[in-house]
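Q:
My hope is that you can spare some time for a protein that puzzles me. I hope you can help me see how the letters and the C-alpha cells relate. Thank you; the sequence and its C-alpha cells follow:
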Amino acid sequence: MDETSGLWTRCTTPLREQVSDTTWQMWLSAIEPVSYDGSTIVLAVPNAVVRDRVESRFLPLIAQTVSSATGHTVAVHLRISDRPVVELLDAPQLRRSLGGAVTATVAVDGSDSGSLDMGRSDGYVTNAPSGPSAPPSSAPRDRYWAADRPRETAAVSLDRRFTFESFVAASSNRLAHAAAQAVAETPGRSYNPLFIYGDSGLGKTHLLHAIGNYVQENFATRRVLYLTTETFMNDFVDSLRMSTTIAFKRRYRECDVLLIDDVQFMENKEGLQEEFFHTYNDLHGAGKQIVLTSDRPPKSIETLEDRLRSRFMAGLITEVDPPDLETRLAILLKKAEDDHDDIPDDVLQFIATHVKNNIRELEGALIRVTAFASLSREPISLELAERVLADLVSSVEPRRITPQIILDATAASYGFTVDALCGPSRTRPLVTARQVAMYLVRNLTDYSYPAIARVFGGRDHTTVIHAVDKITTHMKERRQLYEQVTDLTVQIRNGT
C-alpha cells in the first residue's frame, strides 16, 4: 500500500464515525485517493454532483480528519474521476438527500447512456437505452432501476431492535402500547393522529419504531417515514435555502405512515409549524397515519399554534408513565434475556427498587453490574451489586444533572477542555473522552440522541448512538474504561 492509500485508509474510519451511514454511502464511500505530496491530498469523486455536495458540506470535515491523521495541516483538493460510471446511482437516496429533482446520465456497459429523471415519483428511467445496450426482458430490472424494490423513505433509519415483542407492556404504558399496536395493524383507520407523551426514557421512541417496523413487515406497499422534529426542521431549512420546496413537500406527503418524535421542539418556530400544518392536513385528508410523541401533552406545548393544537387533540392522546416496581423488574428481566445474562432475582429486585423513574438509568445500572462482574470474573451477586451501585443507594435526594456538569467533569478527568470535547478534533484520547461524555449524558439526563448531538457541536445523532453503543460494549471488556466511567458517574451524582 503506497503512502497516499495508507493515509486515506487511516482517515476513513474516523471520518465514517462522524456522519450517518446514509451520508457515508451516498457521498463519501466512493471517494478515492489520487496523490499526496505532504501538504496536499488529491481525492477523486465519481461525478460533479458528488463533488459539489462534498465541497459544500464535508470538505472541512475531511480536511480536519486528514490533518489529524498526519499531525499537520493538509489541504484537500477534489477532482472528478476519469473512471467510467457503470453502476446506476441509487436515485431515491440521491433525490432525498439533494431535496430535489436530479437528472443523471448513466453509462451502461460503456455504451449508450440513458437519462434518469430522479425527480419522478415513480423512479423509472426516461429515455432508457435502446438497441444493443437495452436490458433484455429477462435481465434483472434493478440493474437499471429498482422501482419494485422496497423504498427506504425513512429520514432516520428504523431500529430493528425496537418491536412490539421487545416492549414491556404494563399498567404504566398499556394504553399507549395498545393504541400503537392498533394503528400499526390498521394504519389510518384506528386513531389518527395518535399522540403519545411522557418523560424522556420511558419508551415513546420504542413505540414509534415498533409501529414502523410492524408496518414495513406486514404492508409491503406502505411507505413509512420516521424522523425527529429536528430532522424535519433541517430538511425544511435546506429546502428553503436550495429552493427545493416542491421536492420537500412531495417527500413528506407521499408517505403512508408518518412517525415524528419530539414535536415539542416546534415551539417558537412559526415557519416550521406552518409547513407541518399543511403536511398534516394533506396526509390526514388522504387517510394516512400520523403518530407523534412529545414530553408533554399538546395543551402544554407553549407557542404551539391553536390550529395545530386542535388537530393533535382531535385524535387519541395517551401518556406513558414511569414504570412501577413490577414493570421495572420485567424490563430488567427482558434486558438480561436479550443480553444472555443470568442475573439472580435478588439483584434484579435490588436494582428495580433503587432506580425508579427512567428506563435508561435502569438498564444502565444493570450494565454496570454485569460489566463489573465480567471484568473482575466474579459471579453476579447482591453483595457485588450493592458495591457497584453504592452511589445509587446512598443518594437520598438526587442531584439535578445537566450536560454542562457532565462536560465539565469529563473534561477535567481526561485533561481536555469542554471546547475540545465539543470540537472537531479526532485524536484518539479525545475521541474516547467525547464518547464517554456522550454515554454519560445519555444515561444520566433525559436528553434525546438529537439533543445530545446538538450539545456536542451539532454532530449527527447517529454519532451519539455509535458512541453510546461503543462505550456500553467496551465497559464489559476494558477495566480501565469501566473504572473511568464508574468514577465519573459517582462524581457527577454526588457533585464532588
Observations:
- The chain has five domains: 3-80, 86-129, 174-319, 325-394, 403-494.
- The longest strand covers residues 40-45.
